[in-house]
């Protein structure tokens, strides 16, 4: 069982991760609000990935469904794998014609058919192709810092929310089974039902806690726009309104292409090792006698900021 690296909670990372598995027809977008308008703009949404600060002893917000037969669920068997765990748990519970899982995920699904959740998680941890794609996002390290501090490092964890058979499930690899959050309200979209569930979860944390991130796994937007263009061309529609729609669709396709280019550039930068450059720059600054003055200047600036914060705090208290 090999090591897994930490994954950054970013839509560009998750989109490339999914496509690295060979899955087509989906992409990932970040949600900055729980209001209905934010969700409407991204439909269809197949599932949600939620990042939060994990706390010991937190109880599940629903009922553990140990008897679920039609739900794919892998327990997490190794550290740092929760990002891929959340994605795989989500994708293998979505049954849409537009989504092509690809051979890697299909073969894994077939291989673990009949396994219990613990053994599915163990098999996932040892799946070489999936682990290789996951670890392609490891940040390069030339050396490690041995920082001995009594402060405990915060732990962050990814989970999935997904609709299955008219009910909403929370798939958390640290639990022994899927968590049944209840039925989707009659006549409502599943997102209308899940939004207050996520909101209540966030409210449990201290006021001012901002370490949350919510991402939606949605249909491939470029493919959606291209499909609509093809429909218009096939129907031979011709009017000012149609011309405007065609123009809008072409603009949106261009925007999606530019966004994917930006994602690729950002991911290349994430993987690039900047440490040799930084070391050389520090050597040059030290040789020219500029390093120590710059460090002292930075320390003075930081000290002044701390004094200003203390003064503002005292002013607020009075």
TrEMBL record:
<feature type="active site" description="Proton donor">
    <location>
        <position position="157"/>
    </location>
</feature>
<protein>
    <recommendedName>
        <fullName>Ubiquitin carboxyl-terminal hydrolase</fullName>
        <ecNumber>3.4.19.12</ecNumber>
    </recommendedName>
</protein>
<feature type="domain" description="UCH catalytic">
    <location>
        <begin position="3"/>
        <end position="219"/>
    </location>
</feature>
<keyword id="KW-0833">Ubl conjugation pathway</keyword>
<feature type="site" description="Important for enzyme activity">
    <location>
        <position position="172"/>
    </location>
</feature>
<dbReference type="InterPro" id="IPR038765">
    <property type="entry name" value="Papain-like_cys_pep_sf"/>
</dbReference>
<dbReference type="Pfam" id="PF01088">
    <property type="entry name" value="Peptidase_C12"/>
</dbReference>
<comment type="similarity">
    <text>Belongs to the peptidase C12 family.</text>
</comment>
<feature type="site" description="Transition state stabilizer">
    <location>
        <position position="76"/>
    </location>
</feature>
<dbReference type="GO" id="GO:0006511">
    <property type="term" value="P:ubiquitin-dependent protein catabolic process"/>
</dbReference>
<dbReference type="InterPro" id="IPR017390">
    <property type="entry name" value="Ubiquitinyl_hydrolase_UCH37"/>
</dbReference>
<keyword id="KW-0378">Hydrolase</keyword>
<dbReference type="GO" id="GO:0004843">
    <property type="term" value="F:cysteine-type deubiquitinase activity"/>
</dbReference>
<dbReference type="InterPro" id="IPR041507">
    <property type="entry name" value="UCH_C"/>
</dbReference>
<keyword id="KW-0788">Thiol protease</keyword>
<feature type="active site" description="Nucleophile">
    <location>
        <position position="82"/>
    </location>
</feature>
<dbReference type="InterPro" id="IPR001578">
    <property type="entry name" value="Peptidase_C12_UCH"/>
</dbReference>
<dbReference type="InterPro" id="IPR036959">
    <property type="entry name" value="Peptidase_C12_UCH_sf"/>
</dbReference>
<dbReference type="Pfam" id="PF18031">
    <property type="entry name" value="UCH_C"/>
</dbReference>
<keyword id="KW-0645">Protease</keyword>
<dbReference type="GO" id="GO:0016579">
    <property type="term" value="P:protein deubiquitination"/>
</dbReference>
<dbReference type="GO" id="GO:0005737">
    <property type="term" value="C:cytoplasm"/>
</dbReference>
